[in-house]
């Protein structure tokens, strides 16, 4: 019996998929189809997949050509499948020409011509409404929004506005955004999401204007340190039925959700202490404080909840440019320490110490792609990771799209309670 294998995502199953399965089957007597698993797709940067794995498998099954369906879960699995299933022929579309030549060492390799004029991307674009985003900026720095947005289909960055026209021009050149807007109102025309990337003092004003024009908003954290203004923004968002999304990438990474689950499930026992530190160079302590402390607090408040007993804070300024902030948050049985330095070198890490074990995150924990679990009673360290490129913004965008499309308005890991406590703590530091 001659065994053939082929692989694919098979999202929005179409004629091209049908044709390749049909032709693949003709190369032998038995066809195995590998359908990509969801985390494998995320890992290889395919964030636009719309159908669930079950739906995609079902569609392959309904084509009637597959004798066996398997799930492709990791890079490199193809070689082990060929060995495991004793495959004779490997078939793939010629959009992959040259990429799978090494397979020829293990079995016969066939690249088949693609069906012209149809693709999953094309169907996604015509089936789903495209979300357009406008940016309000006060510096030429997009926080990788533009590059990350390109990885999520159904989303495009269209317009930029700045009160300083030189900044808007430089921004559009640097990030290749065609439309530079002269005034704010124009920015709001034809976009449905607005990213407010400005200093704290201007955020509330811009966010309010965007919400009033029924735009979903992504804002830097905190939106405002004035509790009344903050509440007003949320009230307005409710009235206008739009999403207010905090630019806190960590809350959208798989690694964070995974470690949160492990802690909640009791894998490290009771949390006794959380130690969180990092440092940056040549940046004002305010900026540092807000960006990094907000990420640290988002992690801590999700793990520990919002009922802390007290907070103590110290800022040490040794010279004009060395600054060091140390904050202690006390819970009934847990102590949380957050240390942030400027122009001083502090090891970047988060250590969550529990009665049964610890969890450690290293460098760049605010957009973590890995962590370690160190059980108390075992020597072996377990590593958990999710490889991804970029700074994680794409996961935030993807979550935002799901929220908009499915009409959800509050992201569960950043609910109003967490937001209020976070704002109060940040306000307290002012
Ligand atoms: N295909 C085709 N004609 C099209 C579209 C797709 O022949 N118009 C083929 C592709 O060449 C591929 C198969 O259909 O062989 C599945 O395509 P996708 O679902 O796009 O899968 P892809 O992401 O290319 O995954 O491990 C995954 C595989 O390497 C391929």
Explain the overall architecture:
It contains 14 helices and 19 strands. The chain is an alpha/beta fold and 430 residues long. The chain has 3 domains: 3-122, HUPs (Rossmann fold, 3-Layer(aba) Sandwich); 129-248, 3-Layer(aba) Sandwich (Rossmann fold), CATH 3.40.50.720; 254-385, Dihydrodipicolinate Reductase, domain 2, CATH 3.30.360. The protein has an 8-stranded mixed beta sheet, with helices on one face. β6, α6 (145-149) and β7 form a beta-alpha-beta unit. It is globular. The structure holds [cytidine-5'-phosphate] glycerylphosphoric acid ester. Residues 7-11, 16-17, 20, 36, 72, 92-93, 95, 114-115, 118-120 line the site of [cytidine-5'-phosphate] glycerylphosphoric acid ester.
- Tell me the helix content: 25-40%
Strand content: 25-35%
| Main sheet characteristics | 8 strands, mixed
- Supply the number of structural domains: 3
Helical segment count:
14
CATH topology of the largest domain: Dihydrodipicolinate Reductase, domain 2
Mean pLDDT metric:
92
Uncertain regions spanning at least 5 consecutive residues: none
- Name given to the CATH homologous superfamily of the largest domain: Dihydrodipicolinate Reductase, domain 2
Radius of gyration, in angstroms, nearest whole number: 25 Å
| Reported CATH architecture of the largest domain | 2-Layer Sandwich
> What is the first-to-last residue Cα distance?
74 Å
Question: What is the β-strand count?
Answer: 19
Q: What is the 3D shape?
A: globular
Structural class: alpha/beta
Hetero compounds: [cytidine-5'-phosphate] glycerylphosphoric acid ester
